[in-house]
Amino acid sequence: QVQLVESGGGLVQPGGSLTLSCATFGFTLDYYALGWFRQAPGKEREGISCFSGSDGSTYYADSVRGRFTISRDNAKNTVNLQMYRVKPEDTAVYYCAVRWTGPNNNRPSFRSNDYQHWGQGTQVTVSS
Question: What is the structure's pLDDT at 65?
Answer without folding.
Answer: 98
